[in-house]
Design goal:
alpha/beta, five-stranded parallel sheet, 18% strand, ATP binding, ATP-binding, two-component regulatory system, CheY-like_superfamily
């Protein structure tokens, strides 16, 4: 077994001989951290708190007693089991250790090797079991919250379908009525020319088309939400250029005052539904725009895509605040967010990863704090017959 995989025990004693004896007796069974002063032990605990399963301390030491050390260790490493080594004359220390340091065991010098070994093994087993229980509880809480969100999502999808239906019907009616208005206005413009009115009439068809496209997208979002809530799968393909263009329009309000957005790529189709792809892109673009807060420099967002053999690599890059290295592994976890309370739900990136993975693709994030972030999606390209 690799020594780094062994469970860790911290032993604190100001006597160098005792430290060597402890290492000689238990070094083959456990990974041992030895400290000769309480101050050294507290510094080590701050650095290794997630690695240490048992803290064993001598009672009589200069500057700080073992009880005081274990009491402070409760804050630094609450998951570690705490044990005290004392002498016959230190019974009050034992009482204090139980009340203040909440030790699980104490030993009287000279300690018995078999007794200490059994206590260390039990302490580490208990620490690992408690950690697993907390992990299971955490997953159960996340599952409960996600189940609730699923119910809410289904309700939102149901409520969206009504207004979307009204919007689609009114757009169709408006298009028919507009034809009459345009014909009537065109006759009058021939006799009384008005460049302003002519420009408005010229723009109206494209505005109506945007409304119709928006209504269709909302319907697709509602159907997608309903399908996700039911666990259904909606297979489709999408033109990356078209979806990017539409996602940029939808994100315009979030991006406008924060960054300049550019797109670059050739038309290409991927085996990914347009609604889902738009949902992923919209999340990434909005996140990129929000990352500009507090940077003090002009924001820049780039959406680019290229073909690579059987795949399409779609990238959303920004020059925002970036993400620290220790948080980069967590950003795709459900309910994890780096945004202030009330701003983010912690679901955007996790949903993006889930959707892309379900479509047979992959997600990679790279970021440098203070410089920016780049999210790369690898999607399967539609193969031409």
């Amino acid at each position: 077994m690799n020594p780094s995989d062994l469970p860790a025990v911290l032993y604190v004693d100001d006597d160098a001989l005792n430290l060597r004896v402890f290492e000689a007796n238990f070094g083959s069974k456990f990974r041992i951290f030895r400290c000769s002063t309480p101050a050294e032990a507290l510094t080590l605990l701050e650095q290794k708190r997630n690695e240490i399963g048992v803290i064993l301390s001598d009672q009589r030491m200069p500057q700080m007693t073992g009880v005081e050390l274990l009491e402070r260790a409760r804050t630094l490493a609450p998951d570690a089991k705490r044990m005290l080594v004392t002498a016959y004359s230190d019974m009050q220390a034992v009482i204090d250790a139980v009340n203040r340091g909440q030790v699980s065991r104490y030993f009287v010098k000279p300690w018995d090797r078999a007794e200490v070994l059994a206590a260390l093994e039990d302490g580490l087993k208990i620490a690992r079991l408690e950690l697993r229980i907390r992990e299971v509880e955490g997953r159960m809480m996340k599952a409960e919250r996600l189940a609730t969100l699923g119910q809410v999502t289904a309700g939102i999808a149901h409520e969206l379908m009504g207004p979307v239906g009204y919007l689609s019907q009114n757009v169709a009616s408006l298009r028919r009525d507009l034809e009459c208005v345009v014909q009537y206005a065109s006759k009058h413009l021939a006799a009384d020319a008005s460049p302003e009115v002519a420009s408005v009439l010229e723009d109206l068809p494209s505005l109506l088309q945007d409304l119709a496209t928006g209504a269709d997208h909302l319907r697709g979002v509602a159907l997608g939400l309903r399908a996700q809530a039911r666990g259904e799968d909606m297979e489709a393909s999408a033109d990356v250029a078209e979806v990017v263009s539409f996602a940029v329009k939808l994100a315009r309000a979030e991006v406008r005052d924060r960054a300049r957005i550019t797109t670059m790529g050739e038309p290409v189709k991927v085996t990914f539904g347009p609604v889902k792809l738009c949902q992923v892109l919209l999340n990434l673009i909005v996140n990129a725009a929000q990352a500009m807060e507090g940077t003090g420099r002009p924001g820049r967002i780039e959406v680019r895509w290229t073909q690579r053999e059987q795949n399409v690599v779609l990238t959303v890059a920004d020059n925002g605040c970036g993400i620290s290295s220790e948080l980069q592994e967590k950003v795709f976890q459900p309910l994890f967010t780096t945004k202030p309370v009330g701003i983010g739900t912690g679901l955007g990136l996790s949903i993006c990863k889930e959707l892309v993975t379900q479509a047979g693709g992959g997600v990679r994030l790279s970021s440098k704090q203070g410089e920016g972030t780049e999210v790369e999606l690898t999607l399967q390209r539609v193969q031409l017959p």
